[in-house]
């Protein structure tokens, strides 16, 4: 089923939706964020255009990760006391939703995982090991962050300025990164694998 054609409520430009589960879209022309509901679209917040710092990624970029086709359809930027990082929403060829974190030229490909226990931010202590289901996670970093803005399409609704505190760690015995993000939609738990540039092939 083709996705509906929509226009930006702010500037009138066409919004080309690619993901049927999108709940938010940012106009690439004016930077206005809009929320998508079943039968409506409405603007939230002030227009924001993210500064381009020369990433190899961009919304609409296609390629392969470890020989598997993907397309970038959205991005969120997070600010914290030491700078910022980007999280790119990518769709694999079977519409699998993954997140590619980019921080100072380093990449981690994350998959969202469910949590049986939401884990309170205050209960997680850097340097300790926390058991998540059947995995042990050594906690390495804990900090406060806010959402700077976004672009493209996203599968949840956020607005610039919302808090997004986080805790990062390493899955014990595996070459995997664990990340807890405390956002308005709840606690988001991701587990991912580090990537290098040789894992990418862009088209």
Write the layout of secondary structure elements.
Blueprint: E1 6-7, E2 14-15, E3 24-26, E4 33-36, E5 41-44, E6 62-65, E7 68-80, E8 83-92, E9 97-103, E10 106-113, E11 129-132, E12 135-143, E13 145-154, E14 165-171, E15 177-183, E16 186-195, E17 200-202
Antiparallel strand pairs: 1-2, 3-4, 3-13, 4-5, 6-7, 6-17, 7-8, 7-13, 8-9, 9-10, 10-16, 11-12, 12-14, 14-15, 15-16
Question: Which properties best describe this structure?
Answer:
mainly beta, two-stranded antiparallel sheet, 53% strand, 203 residues, 17 strands
Low-pLDDT stretches: none
**Rg (CA only):** 17 Å
User: In one word, what is the shape?
Assistant: globular
**Beta strand count:** 17
**What is the percent of helical residues?**
under 10%
What is the H-and-E element order? EEEEEEEEEEEEEEEEE
Distance between the amino and carboxyl termini: 26 Å
The number of distinct helices, counting runs of at least 4 residues, comes to 0
Mean pLDDT, as a whole number? 92
Sheet of most strands: 15 strands, antiparallel
Strand content: over 45%
Structural class: mainly beta
């Amino acid at each position: 089923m083709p996705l509906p054609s929509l226009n930006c409520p702010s500037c009138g430009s066409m919004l080309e939706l690619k993901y049927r589960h999108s709940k938010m879209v940012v106009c690439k022309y004016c930077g206005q964020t809009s929320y998508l509901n079943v039968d409506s679209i409405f603007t939230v917040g002030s227009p924001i255009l993210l500064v381009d710092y020369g990433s190899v990624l961009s919304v609409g970029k296609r390629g392969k990760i470890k020989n598997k086709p993907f397309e970038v359809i959205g991005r969120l930027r997070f600010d914290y006391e030491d700078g910022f990082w980007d999280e790119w929403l990518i769709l694999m060829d079977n519409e699998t939703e993954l997140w590619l974190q980019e921080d100072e030229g380093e990449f981690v490909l994350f998959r969202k995982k469910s949590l049986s226990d939401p884990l309170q931010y205050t209960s997680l202590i850097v340097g300790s090991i926390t058991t998540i289901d059947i995995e042990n996670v050594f906690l390495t970093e804990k900090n406060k962050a806010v959402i700077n803005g976004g672009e493209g399409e996203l599968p949840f609704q956020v607005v610039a300025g919302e808090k997004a505190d986080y805790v990062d760690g390493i899955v014990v015995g595996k070459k995997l990164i664990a990340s807890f993000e405390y956002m308005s939609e709840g606690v988001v738990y991701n587990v991912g694998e580090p990537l290098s540039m040789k894992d990418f092939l862009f088209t």
